[in-house]
Amino acid sequence: MSRSSLLAWSAVLLLVLAWTAAATAADASPEGEAQAILQATGVRGGLVVHLGCGDGRLTAALRAGDAWLVHGLDTDPAAVAKARAAIRGQGVYGPVSVDQFDGTRLPYVDNLVNLVVAEDLGGVPMAEVLRVLAPEGVAYVKSGGAWQKTIKPRPANIDEWPQYLHGADNNAVARDAVVGPPRHLQWVADPSWSRSHMAISTVVSVVTAGGRLFTIEDRATPENPFLPGRFALVARDAFNGLVLWRHELADWEPVTRYIKDIAIQLQRRVVAVGDTVYATPGLAAPVTAFDAATGVVRRTYAGTERTQEFAYDAGVLYLVIGDRMNAAQYNIVKTYAGKGVSLGGSDPKAPFDGTGWRGAYAPETLDKPDAVCAIAAVEAASGKELWRIKNIHAYTACSLAVRGQHAVVQTGQGLVCLNPKTGATRWEVKKSIPSGDGTEANTVVLGDDAVYAQEGKTLCVYALADGSQKWTAPITPCYEKPADLFLAAGAVWTGGVGQPTSYDQKTGRKGDVIQQRMTGPMGHDRCYRNFITDRFYINSKTGGADFVMLDGGKEFPHHWARGTCGMGVLPANGLLYTPPYSCQCSIDCMVNGFNAYAAEPGMASPGQDVPVQRAVRLIKGPAYGEIGNRKSEIGNDSDWPTYRHDGTRGGATAAEVSPRLAPLWKTPFKTVPSAPVVADGKVFV
Fold first, then answer.
1. CA 551, 557, 558 angle in degrees (round to 5)?
2. Taking Cα atoms as reference points, which of 437, 573, 431 lies closest to residue 135?
3. 293 partner at 20 to 30 Å CA-CA among 162, 176, 419, 473?
4. Concatenated DSSP letters for 4-17?
């Protein structure tokens, strides 16, 4: 950069700092100062840490809404007590809280905090601040009387997962060198439990972009699998799990649909790109663009009603549109006795009609196995429809793949390559294509110069230029899900119920076969897709998230870390996300809740120890030492002072309770309360 350019940038920086200082001075109240800080930093929600909380007024004011959680820290116990009293007086203690710390180390895991505010760092090194900041988090520190803003850069070696199969090319590979075997909890969030797997999964879809995690999930109670669902599009911070906003969906798939019969198109209803998230906010609702930070609706795309699935590539939304009860729209192929109804993603018996893959229009009713759908391309920025192709027979669920100058679609009648800009057909491969194993849809992936297409139990590879067949190989269907098919670490990888196997992308020559030894305690792998990075094959042969090194085959089994039925886990942002578990398979060893796990850096073998710094963590509060007899027994039988009543964890009391119960009082909560305890005439939750 030239000297003149440096001088110009310096002048801009000084103007920004001067404007911030002037804005702060213009409104010296805590609320005015907090508003100026949030405006200057650009942080729009998440976890805020205020170092040196003082009287707590600025700490409280930094909570700008429900999307914020504020934690104040101070070394002075008197300041902490004063700040707590002030925050309680405002009625916001909980979302805003204050603690004492040692003045040097911040009490957070790595990459957790969105904003650190400090008028004086004291003994806290800037390196410590950057350690706890999430990628693209902000440190706002006063130095020499002026505020200085520091943004933590996003590491180049972590990846996002912006849509169902990672990208529109359907190559579900995380280009993430940090994701690894789970050894640390990054965060835990609701829902803690999922519905029974006799019903639809609680978390249907998960994507992440821009440091945020987006889900479509059921917010109704999971206590009874037949209670009505309450589905919502939920935005969380990807690094600390805080809920930023929710958008209630008008309706969704009935919860009474059996989880293994659910259409995989429901999982392809959310795409996150930069500061925008696209979704269908209802079962037949049009595609809608939301502001990723706030949930405000930016655009509703006319003519996209009944979109069953969609993908995004280079500023264009590619949509599969049709009736949700359309036989061609579902991935499960089952024939009901006496009815001959196919609910499959492809129908190998559907005949050609002389026009190739575009058949004549058939009524969209259950008794027509050759029911149809349409594919459309819509410009995301303007909402302009670029093209639409109607009357597509027997479309294979989630087979639409787009990359560069090619879009490929698989139907029960063959494979078709389109020009993604115009919708014009480039080439066709006409053949009867069976589904994976009679119950599942196929997997189609686009590479640089080839189409890798599962056709039942055969992997067929076609030249992207003209559709000529290059090579074939066997492919093993997975348990209750589409077959594994990945382009990772320079090879083609398949797996499923068989062993992870690689093939040369150009020739199809068989390469490494990883002989995975640990395959229990579950009797089969899970009913959701496996995942892969360029380092690890993440499958579920033990029933959990098992990391197998592509280079060398070392196994890191984790039968206790598993995702929800149908959806599975998600490797992104250097973390492994595991939505709440749905079924009873190997239930004795699961970790419940919506969890994000971090790896241990440098983990080279499954038996490697994780270093843990041990230290006395007892903090003596102001009441310490005031209790005369610390070994005193519970003297009031009507109390229930601790979980399970007392130290024996017996869960029993001698107190008499009337068999005729009537409510005395009630207090609403915004969140699910913890188990109550009772002492001294008070109830604590």
1. 135
2. 573
3. 176
4. HHHHHHHHHHHHHH
SS (H, E, C) 290-310: EECCCCCEEEECCCCCCEEEE
Which are the contacts of 604, defined by CB distance < 8 A and separation ≥ 6? 554
In the chain, what is the straight-line distance between the N-terminal and C-terminal CA atoms, in Å?
59
Strand partners, 98: 72
CA 489 to CA 540: how far, in whole Å? 20
Distance CA 286, CA 289 (A): 10
Q: Which two tokens stand for residue 126?
A: 């800037």
Residue that has been written with the tokens 């009287």 in this structure: 55
Radius of gyration of the chain (CA): 28
216 within 8 A of 204, measured Cβ to Cβ: yes
* pLDDT above 60: residue 22: no
* 267/269 Cα distance (integer angstroms): 6
Nearest to 325 by CA among 287, 283, 357: 283
Please report, to the nearest 10 degrees, the dihedral formed by the alpha carbons of residues 266, 590, 241, 548 taken in order: -80
Token pair recorded at residue 381: 């920025």
- The helix (run of H) or strand (run of E) holding residue 427 is strand 425-430
Q: Give residue-wise pLDDT tens across range 336-362.
A: 233 222 233 333 333 333 333 333 223
Residue 158: what pLDDT?
97
**Burial label, 654 (beta-carbon count in 10 A; 0-12, 13-18, 19+):** exposed
Structure tokens at 507: 């020739």
Q: What are phi and psi of 587, to 5 degrees?
A: -70, -15
Sign of the torsion angle spanned by Cα atoms 26, 30, 31, 36: positive
Residue entry with tokens 């050609």: 352
Q: Are 482 and 165 in contact (CB under 8 A)?
A: no
CB 444 within 8 A of CB 451: yes
pTM of the prediction? Answer: 0.86
Nearest one of 634, 673, 676, 675 to 655, comparing CA atoms: 634
Query: d(Cα 643, Cα 677) in Å, to the nearest integer?
Result: 7
**CB-count exposure of residue 438 (10 Å: 0-12, 13-18, 19+):** middle
Choice among 24-38, 501-515, 595-609, 659-673 with the minimum mean pLDDT: 24-38
Under 8 Å between Cβ of 530 and 491: no
Do 139 and 152 contact (CB within 8 A), yes or no?
yes
What is the Cβ-side half-sphere exposure of residue 5, based on CA atoms within 13 angstroms? 2
CB-CB contact of 162 with 273 (8 Å): yes
Residue 46, amino acid: G
What is the rounded CA–CA span in Å between residue 350 and residue 592? 44
34-38, 494-498, 582-586: range with lowest mean pLDDT: 582-586
What is the rounded distance in angstroms from the CA atom of residue 218 to the CA atom of residue 216? 7
Amino acid at 165: L
